[in-house]
């Protein structure tokens, strides 16, 4: 069939005979002429309809996996821990995984997440955020989706009633007694001691490797750090004399270079340390020692805020301020961690008013 549209002559195939009958070809031709009268190119309109039909074949589960693959490089350990994908896998995909993503609207999302919206608020929030990323990923692929569906679903679900709870932490005044009770010399006790002394997160501590030590400095690789801009730089941790003594003691357990190996393979789990504290009757958890350290900095020292925050591996200040501030305060943090360690080990008064600060 030949048509003229916008001053251009177009040739449009109507289908192969005998698969397409003469009657069907005439119907397609009549429809194409009607489109021309409306100022539309029948060939482009046919292609557009094909794209729309194809978009309906893109199921959410496939888009979710594709979105996950494209973001692995941004995730710690390439997302192998499963924390990014798990909220979708457990709470969204069982209900919406086989639904074409172009058909998903705010009501579908509301009905899917309403059972956990208040009871598992943090998980529901993560699932909603991941679903929003999937919708934007689909839009970037050229699929017809409602990228505002998650915002509309939040409006339908309302404000979450659940109040987030902070991880229980020991008051800093009680840390020395607990630290000094870790005298058994086991892998778990040594890991807890070093965790307290360095105020780092559990993940880099559990994956502490011999080649990360250079004298009295422990350098944590960028990929093991959480919350640092772009995770492009490693983080240096000054090791106090007490921390170095703990490391020397832990070397007898070293396996494949890791100082805190698991029972059979790999390294000890975060649950290992948590369970140890639970068995000892403590509500506090290992991660809480970072809060203990930060409270000590605020209440018992006059250390500047930016040094205390840097000691925790936090990024402080605006982007302009960070661009001009190139130091990581290693020398000042070294004195700070030495004072903290002395207090934990009971080598100074409980007030920890060390002259070094």
TrEMBL record:
The keyword DNA-binding applies. Transmembrane segments: none annotated. InterPro entries: DNA_brk_join_enz, Integrase-like_cat_sf, Integrase_catalytic, Integrase_DNA-bd_sf, Integrase_DNA_bind_dom, Integrase_recombinase_N, Phage_int_M, Phage_Integrase. Keywords: DNA integration, DNA recombination, DNA-binding. One of its GO terms (molecular function) is DNA binding. Residues 165-337 form the Tyr recombinase domain. The keyword DNA-binding applies. GO terms for biological process: DNA integration; DNA recombination. Belongs to the 'phage' integrase family. PANTHER family: PROPHAGE INTEGRASE, PROPHAGE INTEGRASE INTS-RELATED. This is Prophage CP4-57 integrase. The gene is intA_1.
């Amino acid at each position: 069939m030949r048509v003229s549209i916008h001053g251009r002559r177009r040739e449009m195939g109507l289908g192969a005979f005998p698969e397409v009958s003469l009657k069907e070809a005439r119907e397609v031709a009549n429809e194409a002429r009607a489109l021309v009268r409306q100022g539309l190119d029948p060939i482009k309109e046919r292609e557009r309809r094909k794209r729309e039909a194809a978009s309906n074949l893109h199921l959410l589960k496939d888009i979710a996996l594709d979105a996950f693959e494209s973001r692995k490089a941004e995730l710690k350990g390439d997302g192998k821990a499963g924390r990014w994908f798990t909220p979708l896998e457990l709470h969204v995909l069982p209900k919406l995984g086989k639904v074409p993503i172009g058909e998903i609207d705010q009501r579908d999302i509301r009905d899917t997440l309403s059972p956990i919206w208040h009871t598992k608020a943090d998980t529901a929030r993560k699932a909603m955020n991941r679903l929003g990323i999937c919708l934007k990923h689909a839009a970037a692929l050229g699929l017809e989706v409602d990228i505002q569906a998650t915002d509309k679903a939040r409006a339908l679900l309302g404000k979450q009633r659940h109040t987030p709870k902070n991880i229980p932490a020991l008051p800093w005044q009680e840390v020395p007694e607990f630290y000094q009770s870790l005298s058994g010399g086991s892998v778990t006790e040594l890991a807890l001691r070093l965790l307290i002394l360095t105020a780092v997160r559990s993940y880099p501590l559990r994956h502490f490797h011999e080649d990360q030590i250079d004298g009295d400095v422990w350098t944590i690789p960028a990929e093991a750090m959480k919350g640092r801009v772009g995770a492009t730089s490693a983080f240096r941790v000054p090791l106090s004399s007490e921390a170095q003594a703990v490391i020397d003691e832990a070397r007898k357990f070293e396996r494949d270079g890791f100082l805190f190996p698991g029972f059979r393979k790999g390294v000890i789990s975060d649950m290992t340390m948590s369970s140890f504290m639970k068995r000892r009757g403590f509500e506090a958890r290992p991660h809480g020692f970072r809060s203990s350290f930060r409270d000590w900095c605020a209440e018992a020292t006059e250390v500047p805020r930016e040094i205390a925050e840097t000691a925790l591996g936090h990024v402080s200040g605006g982007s302009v301020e960070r661009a001009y501030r190139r130091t990581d305060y290693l020398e000042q943090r070294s004195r700070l961690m030495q004072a903290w360690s002395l207090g934990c080990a009971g080598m100074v008064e409980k007030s920890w008013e060390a002259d070094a600060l």
